């Protein structure tokens, strides 16, 4: 039996926050396939690895080519290499995951074959991409417990209420505002800017900045 050719591909799960049913919810961009296999199905942005590029460079190139995005936060998730992953040839996929702020997500290419979907309400996906998204969501939730990656989804200045909304969107549950505030302030990873949020009724909330953002830009 002749050896089956093996292709190495690089794909990325990109997370951002968008409104869904009146609340902030975790979303990710998908690319609609324009050829077989899985013609018409939605898939994670990605493509084959070139011989002259690193895995990280391939992830960034494929993201730029398919979605127009260039996330500041990008890290490797896992390698998926089951023998039968729904393609004619053997494909081993090295998967990255990324976080983008709202203003970064707004730079997504204007293309009918690129669309953002809520992570909890995805359309049928090509290949094993539903499993891959599941792995990425689990990793995101786990890292929320011992890192400050939630800051990577926020603008330079934010309220503690907005930070809490990020955690709620990722965890999928409500958090007590007072307990959350005490926990965040105890970490020393946010600092008051001295300014307050404009354009709100009643007492405007204080604005903060992240003191841990640099560690996320890797």
Descriptive report:
The protein is α+β, with helices and mostly antiparallel strands and 218 residues long. The protein folds into 2 domains: 7-146, Nucleoside Triphosphate Pyrophosphohydrolase (Alpha-Beta Complex), CATH 3.90.79.10; 149-216, Arc Repressor Mutant, subunit A (Orthogonal Bundle), CATH 1.10.10.10. It is built from 5 helices and 9 strands, in the order ββββαββαβαααββ. The strands form 2 sheets. Strands 1, 2, 3, 4, 5, 6 and 7 form a 7-stranded mixed sheet that branches. A two-stranded antiparallel sheet has the order 8-9. Strand 1 and strand 2 form a beta hairpin. The longest helix is centred in the middle third of the chain and has 16 residues, at 129-144. The radius of gyration is 19 Å and the shape is elongated. 28% of the residues are buried. This is NUDIX domain-containing protein. Pfam families: NUDIX, WHD_NrtR. It comes from Amnibacterium soli. Residues 5-139 form the Nudix hydrolase domain.
């Amino acid at each position: 039996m002749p050896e089956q050719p093996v292709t190495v591909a690089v794909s990325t799960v990109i997370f951002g926050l968008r409104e869904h049913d009146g609340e902030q919810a975790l979303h990710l961009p998908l690319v609609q396939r324009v050829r077989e296999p899985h013609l018409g199905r939605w898939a994670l942005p990605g493509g084959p690895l070139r011989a002259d590029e690193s895995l990280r460079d391939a992830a960034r190139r494929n993201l730029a080519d398919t979605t127009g995005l260039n996330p500041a936060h990008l890290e490797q998730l896992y390698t998926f290499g089951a023998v039968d992953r729904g393609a004619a040839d053997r494909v081993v996929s090295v998967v990255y995951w990324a976080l983008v702020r709202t203003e970064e997500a707004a730079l997504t290419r204007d293309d009918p074959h690129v669309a953002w979907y809520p992570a909890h309400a995805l359309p049928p996906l090509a290949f094993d991409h539903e499993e891959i998204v599941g792995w990425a969501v689990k990793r995101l939730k786990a890292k929320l417990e011992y890192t400050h990656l939630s800051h990577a989804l926020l603008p330079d200045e934010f309220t503690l209420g907005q930070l809490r909304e990020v955690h709620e969107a990722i965890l999928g549950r409500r958090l007590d505002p007072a307990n959350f505030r005490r926990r965040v302030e105890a970490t020393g990873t946010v600092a008051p800017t001295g300014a307050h949020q404009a354009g709100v009724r009643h007492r405007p909330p204080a604005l903060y900045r992240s003191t841990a953002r640099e560690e996320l830009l890797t």
